Amino acid sequence: MQPRNMSMSGVVDLAAVKAAGEAKAKAEQTRAETARQGGGGAVPPSALVIDVDEAGFERDVLQRSAEVPVVLDFWAEWCEPCKQLSPVLERLAREYNGRFVLAKIDVEANQMLMQQFGIQGIPAVFAVVAGQALPLFQGLAPEPQIRETLDQLIQVGEQRFGLTGLTVDADADESAVAAPAPGPHDAALEAAVDALDAGDLGGAIRAYRNVLSDDPANSEAKLGLAQAELLSRVQEMDPQKVRQEAADRPDDVQAQIAAADLDLAGGHVQDAFGRLVETVRRTAGEDRDAARLRLLDLFEVIGPDDPRVTAARTALARVLF
Asked: Are residues 199 and 151 both part of a single domain?
């Protein structure tokens, strides 16, 4: 794909007097509230490049954009141009040292964000400044063009919205920053495991959801919740009936979803993934979305680092795009 320079194409609208004034006032209010709550201090270098999903978008992008421009890198594992562009953006984020934050968004796992931004192809790079979204560029672009675009973005953030960026503490203890919150989360996770051991799936699900309500990125809670919900869905199923219905009604999305749940619960991981990828390929609209979302749920059961998940994500991307 030839790079289509969208550099600052939204600046005229973004810089309109009324819109800029309102956004600036809101950003100042947000920064003041952050300061009152004891936030807004120095951040470690790891905070300059972050992975963002739909659940954390408001906190990690919209709220953060009241302090610093947030650049959005829409990418996918199968996208070769993305693999060339993303390292450049990550290096520049560290080089600019807090003048902007890079938020990486996997389009396969975050279809809603992709649709909201009107992404037609990847890589695609957008920015959010004081809650205002604007396109930067699409496709590969030479580094000098990227730098020029970033410089314009930072200038708009400073002049129109008073965003001076983040203070970066190069000596920050990265391990301390990344460590999970102690105490309440540990207790809640232990309670969830105890509930699972006792066969109380409802109690385990509630406990995991309590953790995720406070810490949406908690990987242990995500995995535990996905597993508990899967067990809850299949515990009352009649396996023979479910499999017969799936065989008799190949176009029945709910029948295929139920059979995929049984496949996964029985350890037939690739069968479950393949069934739902094929269902996504054959369907459209709400049916396709239902199959896709259940497939993403099943990815959580196995874990994102499993090679079977990686292969299924690639297969899903091919039928979607």
From this structure: no
